[in-house]
Amino acid sequence: MGNANSGRRPKPHALKVLRGITRKDRLNPDQPKPPAGDVVKPSMSRVAGVVWDRLAPIAIQMGTLTPADVEVFRTLCRLQATLDMADTQKDADGFAPFTISDDYNGAPKVGLHAAIKLEKEFATTIRPYYALFGLEPVGRSRIVVPKPEEPVNKWA
After folding, report:
1. What's the pLDDT tens digit per position in 125-145?
2. E strand or H helix at 145, and its extent?
3. C-alpha atoms less than 13 angstroms from C-alpha of 99 in its C-beta half-sphere
4. Where are the beta strands (DSSP E) in the chain?
5. Are 132 and 55 within 8 A, CB to CB?
6. What does the pLDDT read at residue 40?
7. What residues pair up with 110 in beta bridges, in sequence order?
8. To the nearest 10°, the Cα dihedral for 141, 63, 146, 21?
């Protein structure tokens, strides 16, 4: 019963070592490490690029955005850009949060504006992406980022 996503997410190798877990069957010393280097902004829409420029410096500073994470972060930026565009629709003149239309029987039917529906749908879709990069408080408490290596001092 269940699948690969069932249960708790596994803890990183470094966190297990810090907590004193030494059983070899529970450690993964061969855990992949992201490549070193600068994070390069990929090609994306103008609106998603604005989101990248707003969020990427924060994630890079925290150490949660590496060159290996660029594609997933681009998806986050695209989702957030769509959410931002839906939000700007609410500022338009004549915006009404509710719409009135006729159902198949001809009776009036009240519904939500499409921008509000989109915001509601994307809010749940985008939340895991924010957690992945530590852009929400709960996500930061679950992330372990390796500390940058200090240069070796020949006088030490």
Report:
1. 888 888 888 888 777 777 777
2. none
3. 11
4. 98-102, 108-112
5. no
6. 92
7. 100
8. 30
Flag residues of the chain having pLDDT under 50.
none
- What pLDDT does 140 receive? 74
Q: Say which amino acid occupies 44.
A: M
Distance of CA 138 to the CA centre of its chain: 12
- Predicted confidence at residue 90, as pLDDT, reads 77
Long-range contacts of 32-39 (CB under 8 A, 24+ apart): 34/66, 34/67, 34/68, 34/69, 35/66, 35/67, 35/68, 36/67, 37/67, 38/67, 39/65, 39/66, 39/67, 39/69, 39/70
Per-residue model confidence (pLDDT) at position 5: 65
98: phi then psi, degrees, rounded to nearest 5: -115, 145
CA-based torsion, 4, 10, 14, 20: positive or negative: negative
Per-residue confidence (pLDDT) for residue 45, from 0 to 100: 94
Task: Report the Cα 141 to chain-centroid distance in Å.
Answer: 15
From 69, 62, 71, 20, select the one nearest 148 (Cα to Cα): 62
The SS3 call for residue 108 is strand
The pLDDT tens digits for 20-38 are 777 777 666 666 677 888 9
User: For residues 105 and 107, what is the distance between their CA atoms, to the nearest angstrom?
Assistant: 6
